[in-house]
Prior knowledge:
It is built from no helices and 3 strands.
Amino acid sequence: MPIYEYKCKKCNEKFEAYQAISASDDTVKCPKCGADHPKRQVSVFTPKNGGENCSPIRYS
């Protein structure tokens, strides 16, 4: 199950939630204030190999 990052629209708390890909964001609540419908954030990650041996994307 993937981890999604959220930010509460009410109290600005940033938190993570494990959620099935098919699940709706409507079920997520802020753990700090309990508000519904937090905003899903864009996640940034680093490949396991640290990005070594990754070829750049080339557009034709």
